[in-house]
Amino acid sequence: MMKSVMPPPLAAKLFILSIVFLPHLFQYMTPLSGFTYGDCFLILSGMFFLFSGAAKIERKLFVLVAYVVTLTVVLQMGGSLTRITTSIHYLAYLFMAMLMPKLTTYKAYFIDIYCKATLVSAGLMVVQTIALQKAGICIPGVLTFLPLTDDGMYNYTEAVMYHNSGRCMSFFGEPSHYAVYVLPFLVMKLISNNGVAKKDLLQAVFVTVSLIMCASFTGILSAIIVWGLSVTILALNRKLSITYILLIAIAGAACAYVMLYSSGGDYLSNEDIYERQSQGRFSGFSILDIANPSDTALLFGYGMNDIADLIYLPGWPRLLYYYGIVGSIIYVLTLLTCTHRKTVSVLMLFLLGILMVGSEINFGCYFVLYMFCIYSTRDIPIFAKY
Predict the structure, then answer these.
(1) Residue 124: closest CA among 137, 141, 138
(2) Residues 6+ apart with CB under 8 A from 116
């Protein structure tokens, strides 16, 4: 007899929907400075879930939250914090993450909704790319008649053709944001201790092709790592069949075709763009030379100050700049405690760490999605038992 899956109550359902669609709704700004409609939906649904009595606070995040609060208060009192709203915004995300463990009771609903949202987003990416290349038509992925967080998105064609070099963005603000959103899907579909179903494999191929179309360097490199891990784990679990190998070969051929005959492939093979992207993404690792921090700042950080005019900082150097050596260690150890050994949650955290090399994912709205992906996969083993 099949085990029935308990449907989520309204409070849990709304909270899960707010997590899944936070990155989509993040494009739309509210009258509250710095807060989007996605943020409002997330916070209101999280509060509804908390006061419904179903929530249980995750104590493992207390030390990290206490550190961020203390650092923010001290720097604000000393006049060293340029924008306290950034810290408040991130603390709101951390608090929402603290409500997630009990929500994993309904992880089947989350995975179902997230996977459907990913496939729809991937479908739009494919349609946008084909329409742009074959007919010169730029299909908007946002509602341009609503207030947007990025003013450049109002002229969507210009945003795609000039600001993003002809790369489509699906429902998101940048091609890289699309890549960050769909990558957990590949982990869910390809990493299993019991083999990979053909349907899951074909869906993973479809999403991978869409990743190549969006031409995100960080996204494609991460996807290659996930596929490599999948093959390795299947081999270790003795689930690597001839059919799977054949399907991977076909998938590789399809991806190669897209690389050769799409604007995304042209973008990825352009040496000037590659060099410019590499310099932009990795120049942030020289932040210590540029900032020349004092011993106190090196240990405890500068807080969440706005540094956009100084240099672009991806996740790892941004973490060090914001929270210092002490805060960075607390941050990493805290996230490690949120995983369970030998489960897919470890790989989700590993994926987050990879993306932090080239993006600031750990300090944006995608952090909320990835935290729930980590919590939702803590009971999914990686290796089979013999």
Answers:
(1) 141
(2) none
C-alpha distances (whole Å) from 376 to each of 32, 76, 102, 120, 373 are 31, 36, 10, 21, 5
Name the pTM for this structure: 0.90
**Quick one: which H or E segment has residue 68?**
helix 62-77
Longest Cα–Cα distance in the chain: 65
364, pLDDT greater than 60:
yes
With contact defined as beta carbons under 8 Å apart, do 378 and 346 qualify?
Answer: no
Handedness of CA 184, 18, 306, 157 (dihedral sign): positive
| Count of C-beta atoms within a 10 Å radius of residue 1 | 3
pLDDT recorded at residue 73: 92
Distances (CA, A) of 82 to 90, 303, 307: 15, 9, 10
Query: Which of 259, 196, 188 has the alpha carbon at shortest distance from 231?
Result: 196
Q: Which amino acid is at 117?
A: A
Q: Of 140, 143, 234, 226, nearest to 180 (Cα)? A: 226
CB 46 within 8 A of CB 97: no
In the chain, the N- to C-terminal Cα span, in Å, equals 25
Look-up of token digits 């943020």: 39
- pLDDT top residue among 279 and 176: 176
Tokens representing 385 are 């038992």
Task: Categorise residue 32: left if φ over 0, alpha if ψ from -120 to 50, beta otherwise.
Answer: beta
3-class DSSP assignment, residue 381: strand
Cα gap 377→266, rounded to integer Å? 36
What dihedral angle (degrees, nearest 10) is formed by the CA atoms of 88, 89, 91, 92? 120
What is the helix (H) or strand (E) element at residue 355, kind and residue range? helix 344-358
pLDDT at 189 over 50: yes
28 band by pLDDT with thresholds 50, 70 and 90: very high
Indicate the SS3 state at residue 139: coil
